[in-house]
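Quick one, T. Sequence first:
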Amino acid sequence: MTGFAEHRRVATVALVVANYDEAISWYVGKLGFLLIEDVDLGGGKRWVTVAPANGQGARLLLAEAADDAQTSRIGNQAGGRVFLFLETDDFVRDHTAMLEKGVEFREAPRHEAYGTVAVFADLHGNLWDLIEPKR
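Structure tokens:
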């Protein structure tokens, strides 16, 4: 396909959180993400992005809930399904490190046709897969 579609990518995914600083602490401290931006937008709003330390994949925009509707979505942005997928080149290394940092895994690691995977919850209960794809 030629044209405009060749030059696009998913760059940022918004994640509704209860508190900017608490979320930054969790993603940086527990997952080893880097704080990319933390810009004061005024009125208590900030533009806060974090990303895996290797710079691969989309950034997360940590969006502090601003009203009751947004607050009701914290921890359940995907209706109880896995919402995000954290891909690794070494499942055992990262699973061990995450357990040591207190990340809550909801299941034991399992081997699937597509790779090694285990579901974990973020600080608010959103479900993620830690996955090492088969190569």
